[in-house]
Amino acid sequence: MGRATKEVALEAVEAGDKKKAKEWINRMGEESIFSHDAYMNWVVELLDYIYVHDGAEALEEAIRKNFEREEGELIESFKKMGLREQVQTYAKGLRMHFQKLEIEEDDEKVSIKMVPCGSGQRLLESGAYDPPRRLSRMKPHRITWNRPNFPIYCAHGPLQEIIAIEKLGHPLYVHWFPDEVATESCRFCFYKDPKRIPEEVYKRVGMRKPKK
Questions:
Q1: Which of 44, 117, 150, 159 could form a disulfide with 121 if both were Cys (CB 3.0 to 4.6 A apart)?
Q2: CA 128 – CA 10 distance, rounded (Å)
């Protein structure tokens, strides 16, 4: 009980005990998803409280408290990377949601999609926005992509785009989402030429696409 699960799993691998190694690896996965969900639920309840008591502007300010620093650091690191490394780095982050990834490429962009979304979609499908929990669905605002009935957990997605536009002139990656947000995963799209990012992406967060 007092040893880290990773430690005993590696020990079983080194000993050639496949059965034990598999058991410990499965346990490590269970422990990880438990921790993931505990923090996800903690965060969404805090977001909900801020929105209900202080409104959308206060919610945006609260999310910015972390994301402005986080996105700033990501922007600086991505400036030193090519497209391939950017996609690989972001995929590594998405894998922390413990879901499979679908990755596609066309002439314009590279797209990553979790199957299913390991946070927003899972919250929705768990009934978190229904009684008795009743998490908030937000009114149109720039941190809802100006969409109504917006699941509160997902408000960080628009803000990630806003912060990148403010700092870089364009989103690092674009969220393309289903008609009903969180009913399936967003696609996280890395455009090979940021100038090809559609004007719609800027308009939906109340911003203008640069002319050059």
A1: 117
A2: 37
